[in-house]
Amino acid sequence: MSDSVTGSQSADLHYFHQLIDRAKKLPAITTSVIWPLSEPALHGAVEAAKAGLIDPILVGDEAAIKALAAKLGLDISAYKIENAPNERKAAELGILLARNGQTVAVMKGSLHTDTLMSAAMARETGLRTSGKRISHVFVMDTPAYNRTVMVTDAAINIEPELEDKQHIVQNAINLALALGVKLPKVALLSAVETINPKIKSTLDSAALCKMADRGQIRGGVLDGPLSFDLTVSEHSAGIKGVKSPVTGQADILVAPNLESGNILFKEMEYLGGAKLAGIVLGARVPVILTSRADSAETRLTSCAVASLLHHSTKK
Q1: What Å distances lie between residue 78 and 52, 56, 145, 302, CA to CA?
Q2: Do residues 72 and 206 both lie within one domain?
Q3: 231 and 196 together in one domain
Q4: Of 195, 247, 277, 310, which residue is the least packed, with the fewest Cβ within 10 Å?
Q5: Cα separation values, 142 from 97, 138, 186, 267, Å
Q6: Average pLDDT over residues 196-209
Q7: % residues pLDDT > 70 (the chain)
Q8: Confidence tier at 13 by pLDDT (50, 70, 90)
Q9: Which is nearest to 104 in space by CA: 266, 307, 277?
Q10: Residue 159: C-alpha distances to residues 81, 108, 162, 165, 200 (Å)
């Protein structure tokens, strides 16, 4: 997503490989790996540790973790294990480790997302921070688009209000800056590119643009409402007569709600062949949040994103 990563990307210059290479040069981040009791979850954590991205603490049923490692032929003897009898207890313990500063990131294993996020978002014992809204970003690299793009929020905020969207946008901009984008271009998605009082997302988009003008959102260039075709196609924008620094070159796609964002990222993944990484922002520490079906490669890339974000925040 850096300004230099545009145009067609050859296999050996794949953007995600660049992220991993950059993160390998940084100290490994201590990470609570919660309930790594599937092959992709445990394999992904071990591969990320071998790559020097994370220093994992495996949180879950100790006997089951060791049995799975033996079955997969994975050596986990170097990694600390915190025993927890079930998913809920593992989530609570893994979050506690992060809250107490024993880890600086959290990684989802094979437990349900709602179990993990329930523990992470608990007001008294979770990872909430004052004045920040927690949101999720997918970092996506697709052959159909000549730059890497973020999609937010497709996993946490169901029907975000304007104030929520302000945080969602700022969280995504902060991540883009951490990953090397000098001035992220943010497309505020809707069904149309004009203001329609009957379509709430168009009103929210206009307000968010004005908030950016007034310095309430910083670090990026916003435009919206924009229909999806305008965000990725300058040709389409030309036909419709829409002139904007964002059209055809968006770095961040902000969905009106979780439904549309979830549909969008899955279309990009399953029909567009996109590779992805997933991370939760706005919490005390980065939360590496991927699907239980995601590959070890996806988990590895997500760890790299979390590492770059953590070290950027330290600066």
Answers
A1: 13, 9, 41, 22
A2: no
A3: yes
A4: 195
A5: 35, 12, 18, 11
A6: 97
A7: 94
A8: very low
A9: 307
A10: 38, 24, 10, 10, 11
CATH number of the domain at 49, please: 3.40.50.10950
pLDDT in tens, 81-93: 999 999 999 999 9
Residue 77 has pLDDT above 50, yes or no: yes
Q: What is the pLDDT, as a whole number, of residue 292?
A: 66
Per residue in 39-61, pLDDT tens? 999 999 999 999 999 999 999 99
Evaluate whether residue 13 is within a structural domain: no
pLDDT reported for residue 126: 94
Instruction: Name the band, by pLDDT with cuts 50, 70 and 90, for residue 12.
Output: very low
Is the residue at 171 inside a domain?
yes
Burial 142-178 (b: 16+ CB within 10 A, else e): beebebbbbbbbbbbbeebeeebbbbbbbbbbbbbbb
User: CA–CA separation, 174 vs 185, rounded Å?
Assistant: 12
Q: Which residues contact 210 (CB under 8 A, 6 or more apart)?
A: none
Assess if residue 154 is contained within a domain.
Answer: yes
Q: What 3-state class would DSSP assign to 187?
A: strand
> How distant, in Å, are the alpha carbons of 37, 52, 223, 287, 312 from that of 185?
39, 31, 8, 24, 20
Question: Residue 168, SS3?
Answer: helix
* Res. 2: pLDDT tops 50: no
**Same domain, residue pair 274 and 232:** yes
C-alpha 305/C-alpha 90 separation (Å) is 23
**How far is CA 215 from each of CA 79, 149, 220, 282, rounded to the nearest angstrom?**
45, 24, 10, 19
Tokens in use for 94?
Answer: 């893994």
| Alpha carbons within 13 A on the beta-carbon side of 110 | 19
Query: Is 89 part of any domain?
Result: yes
The whole model's pTM is what?
0.91
Tokens found for residue 170: 């700022």
